[in-house]
Structure formats: C-alpha cells, structure tokens
Amino acid sequence: MARLGFLQAELDSIREQGLWNTIRTVESPQGSWFVVNGQRVLNLCSNNYLGLADDTTLKEAAKAAVDRFGVGPGAVRSISGTQSLHLELEERLARFKGTEATIVLQSGFTANTTTIPAVTGEGDLIFSDELNHASIIDGCRLSKAKVVRHAHNDAADLQRQIQAAGECRRRLVITDGVFSMDGDLAPLPALLEVARKYDCMTMVDDAHGEGVLGDHGRGIVDHYGLVNEIDIEIGTLSKAFGVVGGYVAGSRLLIDYLKQRGRPFLFSTGPTPADVAACLAAVDLLEASDDRVQRLWENARYFKGKMHAAGFDTGKSETPITPVMIGDAAKASQLSRELFEAGVYAQSISFPTVARGKARIRAMISAVHSREDLDFAVEHFTVVGRRLGLV
Ligand SMILES: Cc1ncc(COP(=O)(O)O)c(C=O)c1O
Q1: DSSP assignment of 53-97, as one string?
Q2: 180 is catalytic
Q3: CATH 3.40.640.10 corresponds to the domain 56-288
Q4: Per-residue pLDDT tens over the stretch 309-355
Q5: What is the pTM of this model?
Q6: 1 pLDDT above the threshold of 80
Q7: Cα 321 to middle of ligand 1, angstroms
Q8: Is 239 among the catalytic positions?
Q9: Closest atom of ligand 1 to CA, residue 245
C-alpha cells in the first residue's frame, strides 16, 4: 500500500483543483431519455447519434449471433479468434466506405494506437493538429517518429511546419475529422493539397463523422468527395453505430500490413460476436436508409436555432455536437449540475479537456430526440442560464 501512497497525493490535488471527474451510473438503455443515478433525465451527453444503441434490429442481430457463435471469440484474431462474422463486417464496412479493405479492432482508440506506430517509426515525422484526440496523441507516442504539432485546422501552418522540419524518411499528416469538443470539421481538401505537395501519407480519424456526415453517413471523406484520396481512415463503431469497436479503412496493402504488424490486432482479443453482428445490422440500416441521418441534422439545426434565439453562443460547430460556450469553469459546472436537477443531463467540459476560460456544456443531439425533448432542453437551459446570469 505504501508504495502506491503517491496516488493519494495526486487524487487530493485533482480534487483541490476542482478537476475531479464524478462518474454517474446509467441504469437503463441509452435513448433520448435514460435513468442516471436513479433519476430519469433527458440524454444530451451520449454519442448515440442515430439512436442505434438500443435499436431492436441491432439487439436481435446480437442475440442471434450469441446463439450461433457464443459470447467470446476465444483467442486473439491472429490465432483462432477471427470468426466469419469479423470478415463479413470488414467486407461490408469496406463496401460502405468505398475502400478496398478494412480491419476491425476493439475500439476507435485502439484503431489509432494500432495504425500510427505500424506506419511510422524512427526517422519519420508526424504532423498532428494541436487539438487531435488523445488516442491519436497516444498512437504517436507509441511510434518512434518525431511529432510536430501544427495550429488547429490551419493548412498554411502545416506547410510551414513541414518546411521547417526538413528532411526525414517518411511523413504522416494526421487529423481528427470532426473535433469532438467544438464540432468543427478538419479542412481535408486544403490539408490534402499540402500533404501531396510534400509526399506525406494522410490519415483522418472519423470517429464523430461516421453516421453523421456524407451520403448515408459514410463520413467526412465522402462529405468532401475524397473517397480513396486519403490513405488511412479510422472509424469507430461505438458512436453513431451504437455498439463498440473500431476499424481502419484503406487499401488492401495497408490492411494486409496491419494484420501482420498491428500489435493490438496480434496481441489482444477482438470484438465479440454480439458486437460484430450488431455492427453488421447497423451497416445494413445505414445502407438501406438515410432517414436517421437526416433526422439527426434536422434536430441539430432545430436545437441550435432555438439556443441562439435564447441568447446562447454555440461556438463554431458545423455538426450535431453543440458546445454551449460559458467560459468560466465553475459556472459551466454549476449550469450542468442545475440542469441535471431539472432533468437534463448535459456534461460540462473544462480545462484540461479544453483551454482555460473556454469551459462549455457539450450538448449531443441525436436522431431519436423528439421536438418536445429539444424544447424541454432549451427551456431549462434558458431558465437556469438566466438564473446564473448567462443569458
Ligand atoms: C476523435 C476520436 N477518436 C477516437 C475515439 C475513441 O473511440 P472509441 O470510443 O471507439 O475508442 C474518440 C472517442 O471519444 C474520438 O472522439
């Protein structure tokens, strides 16, 4: 115990700085409303963009897969854990994304930490947006490449950084597609133009674009009309797809290589039959109909319009991620707390996740919210916001 005593000092310091992360307990399925810490509240904080996390078709698919394949894959995929379902999902995802191939992994986080160290190493340079997700940062740390950060969404700064960095063996330009705290989009065409000029590999993490942007939710690369122009696409199956898992999409060459050299693929057991079957059902639904994606965008536009009319600033979001900008961390956390008491669960986000003075409430809109749900949210944001002098 004494050897771990330093952890107590760390925890005390986290508490003193007001950075303690209180983790609430969910006691029902994810939906527009759910039960949290015993209270039924409106859900404005999940990534369940299309409402698939509790979809009947996905649940039936998962149950059927358990009956046919059991609950666990039994081994890492490279030994005896690749089930026909995994291969089927990889083929269907490749068709959905319009790439030659995909590899399915345990999570979106793992997809980044698998890929980055596999394609870069000593003597290479990685050019990474300063606001890239933690899983990209950790993937870069696992690579022996040197990491150079460029200003957020700034292709001109990317070019300056590439020029200043000089010669190297290989270069990788890597960015989030949708930035999860602001909901803004990476300027992929401009980044790609610079990357091409300097012969850089390109990689985009589409975690929050999948199921949201592009035709039938095919993601940011489709949104920009760049299918097969970006070398490496990372996807997650745990947000709009409503399940859990991650994948990499790209050329057959890339995917063959990751199946030989991707360490989490080789050394960690893959997704379960239930997860994979539910993801297959999600791909079916997305291919068959764009309705959910359209409803998501209608809801996002409706909510943002109402929040603006009520006097709130929703930042620079271009997606259903709606940051309600507050500034002061204590005020944002008080707003979140009082909203929860009023029946609206919307998470406050502050330093170190966002810059100091940029605290906000992040409202996550879903296709399954009704107009009444969104009106309920705006009403309570307004009442509590007025009481706190925010609007
Ligand atoms: C940009 C980005 N990449 C990756 C991930 C991780 O995805 P997963 O939850 O599937 O591990 C997230 C999740 O928050 C994300 O926002």
Answers
A1: GG-HHHHHHHHHHHHHH-S---SBIIIII--HHHHHHHHHHHHHH
A2: yes
A3: yes
A4: 999 999 999 999 999 999 999 999 999 999 999 999 999 999 888 99
A5: 0.96
A6: no
A7: 14
A8: yes
A9: 10
